[in-house]
Specification:
The structure is a single chain. A 9-stranded mixed beta sheet has the order 3-4-5-2-1-9-6-7-8. The relative contact order is 0.25. The chain has 2 helices and 9 strands, in the order E-E-E-E-E-H-H-E-E-E-E. With 114 residues, the protein is mainly beta.
């Protein structure tokens, strides 16, 4: 499935937030990696990505994080969550973690350019 991403980066607080367009918040957030959190709705689907201290966590410059051309790919199965984040078609983050959160099987591309 494809969804539209609304992303923002606050340089002063060094925080990246990406929200799926049309979603109204989340009921839980889960740390999928050190410093990367997924906001989950009441159906256990991801609705937001939150990254405090983003330039450090994602090991990239603040200037890169200000670019609005962001794509996030989230794939889940019964065992793992696969999370990839690209800015301006350059992969800046790739994570594989245990799916201990009850997120259902899914493949979702969240793109700021849809």
């Amino acid at each position: 499935m494809k969804k539209t991403l609304i992303s923002s980066y606050n340089e002063i607080n060094d925080t990246f937030i990406g929200i799926i367009d049309g979603e109204k918040g989340y009921c839980a957030d889960y740390g999928i990696s050190q410093g990367i959190y997924l906001g989950i709705n009441n159906s256990n689907y991801p609705t937001a990505v939150i990254v405090p201290q983003a330039s450090e966590v994602l090991n990239t410059s603040k200037e890169t994080l200000e670019n609005p051309n962001v794509k996030i790919n989230i794939n889940c199965d019964d065992i793992y969550i696969y999370f990839d984040m690209c800015i301006e078609n350059t992969k800046i983050c790739s994570i594989k973690c245990k799916n201990n959160f009850g997120i259902p099987k899914m493949e979702c591309l969240i793109d700021s350019n849809i």
